[in-house]
């Protein structure tokens, strides 16, 4: 009965998380115009338009190391707040993947997969980044070749989550899930001591619950960003799955896992809207050539390329 109550509480937390952060909950929000925007380089845009896909990177392998560590102090404080004395330093994702073993004090004979095994499965989260900012100078500078790159629009994607910039909000979510995971572990220990019920079935139920807690915590971490970047209005498409087709690419000497997301705006044969824009530092005289190249890649003579109206600020 207690495990069923824990499951109901977890369902409530999951529902609240989606209602407050999933893109589908914001269809009537004035900040959402129906499109997300992705800022990128010319080279990356060619690959995206040619394949009609964008890459979602394994969250543990973000290129920006600061993002891997930014939420660690917040999760550490949340854990201490409810009496979990577990060291959480460095890569947040690696630490959260160890949490289940720490709480449940796993032994080699436990009838569940090890954290190492779950890591090797690469079930997620895989993350692709977008913004609701249609023409953002900071995005041009940071993500689009210092203003010489491109920005394209796509409809709001399934699995898109609003990025959390407030430390207090992340801590609040983390405390809820960590407390629930701790309660599940305590219930498991009590049932194991008294040998009440079918322990194999109880273990399986505990494992499913703590797996969902772990997944939710990892999603929180994947959706957190330093408050200094709140002006970016970022959203992240978060991909999970047991049977994902994981590809790999080399980035700065590292091998990075990723999965491909089919972009609905790029379906072959669909007439293209004027959805591509060049950066403010893009040479005006090169705009006709850029438009010709993009029309060729898309096989769409109606595709329009516009230039950002921002004055360039190097």
Describe this structure in words.
This protein is α+β, with helices and mostly antiparallel strands and 314 residues long. The protein has one domain. The protein has eleven helices and ten strands. It has helices at 2-21, 42-51, 65-69, 72-81, 92-97, 99-104, 115-121, 137-143, 167-194, 199-222, 287-298; strands at residues 35-40, 53-58, 126-131, 150-155, 160-162, 234-239, 247-251, 254-262, 276-278, 305-307. It has a six-stranded antiparallel sheet with strand order 5-6-3-2-8-7. Strands 1-4-9-10 form a four-stranded mixed sheet. The longest helix is centred in the middle third of the chain and has 28 residues, at 167-194. It is elongated and about 80 Å long. The model is unreliable at 28-32, 106-120 and 268-274 (pLDDT under 50).
User: Major sheet, described briefly?
Assistant: 6 strands, antiparallel
Strand content: 15-25%
Shape: elongated
The helix content is: 40-55%
Biggest sheet, spatial arrangement of strands: 5-6-3-2-8-7
Uncertain runs are: 28-32, 106-120, 268-274
Number of strands: 10
Rg value = 22 Å
Distance between the amino and carboxyl termini: 62 Å
Mean pLDDT: 82
Strand-and-helix sequence, N→C? HEHEHHHHHEHEEHHEEEEHE
Number of helices: 11
- Integer tally of domains: 1
Helix/strand class = alpha+beta
Q: Could you give a short description of this structure?
A:
The chain has 11 helices and 10 strands. By secondary structure, the chain is of the alpha+beta class.
